[in-house]
Amino acid sequence: MAFDPIKLRPGNVEFLVRRAQGEGLFIGGVWGQAEGGADFATLDPATGIETGRIAAASASDVDAAVAAARGALAGWRATMPVERARILWKIADLIEAHIDDLAELETLDQGKPLFVGRWAEIPGAVNQFRFFAGQAMAIEGQTLESSINYQPAGRQMRTWTVREPVGVVAAIVPWNSPLVLTAMKLAPAMAAGCTVVLKPAEDTSLSALRLAELMAEAGLPAGVLNVVTGLGGQTGAVLAAHPQVDKIAFTGSTATGRAVLDAAKTNFKRVTLELGGKSPSIVFPDADMGITVPGVANAIFFNGGQVCIAGSRLYVHRSVHDEVVEGVAAYAKGLKLGHGLAPDTQMGPVVSARHAERVEGFLNRAKTDGATMLTGGERFGDAGTFIAPTVVVDVKPDMEIVREEVFGPVLVVQAFDDAEEVVAAANSSEYGLAASVWTESLSTAHRMISDIRAGTVWVNSHAMYDASLAIGGVKQSGWGRDSGRQAMDNYLEWKTVCACV
Ligand code: NAD
Description:
Layout: H1 10-19, E1 25-27, E2 30-32, E3 39-43, E4 50-55, H2 59-78, H3 81-97, H4 99-110, H5 114-136, E5 143-144, E6 157-165, E7 168-172, H6 178-191, E8 195-199, H7 206-217, E9 225-227, H8 232-241, E10 247-251, H9 254-264, E11 270-274, E12 279-283, H10 289-301, E13 311-317, H11 321-334, H12 353-369, E14 372-375, E15 390-393, H13 400-403, E16 410-416, H14 419-427, E17 431-432, E18 434-438, H15 442-451, E19 456-459, E20 474-475, E21 478-479, E22 492-500
Parallel strand pairs: 7-8, 7-10, 8-9, 10-11, 12-13, 12-18, 13-16, 15-16, 18-19
Antiparallel strand pairs: 1-2, 3-4, 5-6, 6-22, 11-21, 14-15, 17-20
Helix pairs in contact: 2-8, 3-5, 3-7, 4-5, 5-6, 10-11
Nicotinamide-adenine-dinucleotide (NAD) binds next to α8 and α9.
């Protein structure tokens, strides 16, 4: 099915006319073009058709956005928590009211099947704003009984802490789940009283622009959110290094995370990094195969494997290896690939031609290294950027396909014989984002929960998340946590007070 703009939802046709003509910078509450009218095309990955033009913000556009955020900071910080909460809740209501439009925009931009946005990601974004609306009214410091012995006659030393917003936040997000990952940064930052400059990913800016419109409609004061679209190495790099930015909230690849960390050195910005993963799914022989086989398949093929927490390494106990692998391969072969807007599509294209080439490169090198493609292992179809769902066997632990994040519908399978061996294999990765364990044994589950080095461990499920739960990784999967109460710590500083009164 080709992308047909006339068949889009009416709200989106109007939106694309309004914003995707290169007039998508939102600075100080005003929409405008980038300096010199610079822009670039955004494409529907399923067809390669241009869906709009995205403004390419220059260094001076970034300057203006940061200045607007700085200018709005004092007012937003002084806004009563209940008022910040009311606006955040209203934003959630507006996202929910436009859920079908937003899901369609995500599909158009990223390629994901409609159901992924409609039933998982956009509701996830709504819940982020609702959860952090509550957190805006729950910011608390401490009173402390100190032992300071400076006590002038008739006076007492009182000591306490207060929490204050970090300041101007640069939120830099990737393309795989654009709206919900954006919400994970904006909602806690704004609940804490910070103002934000948002840099969406170049391949998927549309939902961020629509969100900015909805946030303005919800009554968010001008300058609290500013959006600068543009290329990572240009707009993103300038924003990350900007001396008037106090904190970078970054989600993306581990390689870019390193560049962001470097840029943050200029003025010692606070940094949180939500980076890549190569998460293991571990199947023990006593697992309930009725939920395990579809569960571990879905862990990798949901959203075409373009999920940071995807279960991309499958470890199966040797005694059930063939049964599980055959089941997963049959699941992969049965998936219906197509345009994400078609109602029966189960897996869409990968996000861009560049990314499809990258995934194909991994597959070709794996073949050269001696791996076997049990199913898939190549492009799918003649048009668009589809990769066939792929199950790779006959691999060795040191192969690139086992170690590196492919970020596509590619599962590598290895057999194991005992718990000790699989813990060592699971932990041998440079990443430590997430893991799932499939077993009916309470003691096996507890042992895995404690021995696996990862930010999240699921038991008999994978990639479950909720606004109340922190998400993030250890090792090269990053620093800090998004989502959950822990995310408020990213956007609040401690101030210590000693008062001799
Ligand atoms: P990416 O690192 O290429 O880009 C992420 C963002 O950074 C984009 O907005 C990009 O424009 C910007 N950027 C690029 N170069 C920059 C620079 N030098 N300075 C500042 N900004 C720059 O990542 P991607 O390909 O968009 O996303 C996929 C990656 O994101 C995967 O590695 C995935 O695992 C990771 N991810 C992690 C999580 C998590 O929670 N840990 C969630 C989703 C995605």
